[in-house]
Amino acid sequence: MRPILLASQSPRRKELMQLLPWPFEVYTKEVEEQIDTQLAPEVNVQSLAEQKAMAVAECYSDRLVIGADTVVCYEGKIMGKPKDQEDAKQILRLLSGNTHQVYTGVAIICKETQTKVTFYQATHVTMQDLSDSEIEEYLLTNESHDKAGAYAIQGYGARYIYSIEGDYYNVVGLPVHAVYSKLKEILG
C-alpha cells in the first residue's frame, strides 16, 4: 500500500497520525481558509477539511488523502486563531470559567477510487476560572500563538482545563479513534 497523504502542516496531527497502523506522508497545498459565520461550526470544519484534502488529491489522484480542520466555539461563535497577544487574552477571558466546544472536521478522499468520506467530532471542554495573572503567565509561553481558542490542551494549557467530555485527541486536532474506524472501513 502506498502511504496515505496527510494534508496538514500541523505537527500535532502528524504525531497523532503516527498512532495509526498505516504509513503516511505529509503533503500540503495552500488553501485559503475561510469560515462562513452563517454556517454551523460542524459544516465549516468539514468544508475546510475537504478543501485541504481535495487540493492535495488533485495532485495525487491515486492516493488516499486526509484533510482536517479544528475550531473552538463558545456560545455558537467560532473562535479562530488569535491575531495577536491582545486577541489571545480576550479569547482566554471569554473561555475562562465556561464550557466551550471543539469541532474537528475530517475528509478522507481518493479521486481514483471515488472515495469521499467527511465527518466531524465534537468535544466539550470546561476551563477553570482564570485570573488575569494566570492569563498573562500563559501568554508568556507563546502556546496561544497558532492555536484555535488560544490554548493548547496538550501543553501548558492543560493546567487550566477542568474537564472534557468527548475525545481528547479531537481537541488536540485529530479524532484518532474516528479516523482509525473510517480508515479500517475504507482499507478493509
Q: How would you describe the overall organization of this protein?
A:
The chain has one domain: Maf protein, CATH 3.90.950. It is built from six helices and seven strands; from the N terminus they run βαβαββαββαβαα. It has helices at about 10-15, 40-55, 85-95, 130-140, 170, 175-185; strands at about 5, 25, 65-75, 75-80, 100-110, 115-125, 160-165. Strands 1, 2, 3, 4, 5, 6 and 7 form a seven-stranded mixed sheet that branches. A hairpin with a 4-residue loop joins strand 5 (about 100-110) and strand 6 (about 115-125).
List the helices and strands and how they pair.
Blueprint lengths: L3 E3 L4 H7 L6 E3 L14 H17 L7 E10 L2 E3 L5 H11 L3 E12 L4 E13 L4 H8 L21 E5 L2 H5 L3 H12 L1
Parallel strand pairs: 1-2, 1-3
Antiparallel strand pairs: 3-4, 3-5, 5-6, 6-7
Largest sheet: 7 strands, mixed
CATH fold category name:
Maf protein
Tell me, what is the CATH class? Alpha Beta
Radius of gyration over all CA atoms, rounded: 17 Å
State the share of residues found in helices, binned by percent: 25-40%
Topology, number of strands: 7
Tally of domains: 1
Globular, elongated, flat, extended or rod-shaped: what is the shape?
A: elongated
Question: Whole-Å distance between the termini?
Answer: 12 Å
Mean of pLDDT: 95
Q: Label the structural class.
A: alpha/beta
SSE string, helices as H and strands as E: EHEHEEHEEHEHH
Give a quick precis of the structure.
Helices cover 32% and strands 26% of the residues. With 188 residues, the chain is an alpha/beta fold. Strands 1, 2, 3, 4, 5, 6 and 7 form a 7-stranded mixed beta sheet that branches.
